[in-house]
Amino acid sequence: MTRANGTFDVIGQLGALRRYARSLTRDDSDTEDLVQEALARAYQKKSTLKTGSEIRPWLLAILHNIFIDRLRRSRSEG
């Protein structure tokens, strides 16, 4: 799905986001937290997604980056 005519539809991407988050976290609660944070960040940064661009890779990259940030933070605290 692409971003067209200024629409920002992420509902169709929830399954892919949850599957990828679950593969990273291996925990249902952490999966939902990660997806929720990724969607919030995507909404904040939606102006950076170019019209006509594929939304799925963009969303998955945001999710991945949040996961890596969390992982680094937990390692530095521990």
Relative helix content: 55-70%
What value does the average pLDDT take?
91
Based on secondary structure, the structural category is mainly alpha
Radius of gyration: 13 Å
- How many β-strand stretches? 0
How would you characterize this protein structure?
It is a single chain. With 78 residues, the chain is an all-alpha fold. The protein contains 3 helices and no strands. It has helices at 14-25, 28-44, 55-77. Helix 1 (14-25) packs across helix 2 and helix 2 packs across helix 3. The longest helix is centred in the C-terminal third of the chain and has 23 residues, at 55-77.
Based on the model shown, name its key terms.
67% helix; globular; 78 residues; mainly alpha
What are the SSEs and their pairings?
Elements: H1 14-25, H2 28-44, H3 55-77
Helix pairs in contact: 1-2, 1-3, 2-3
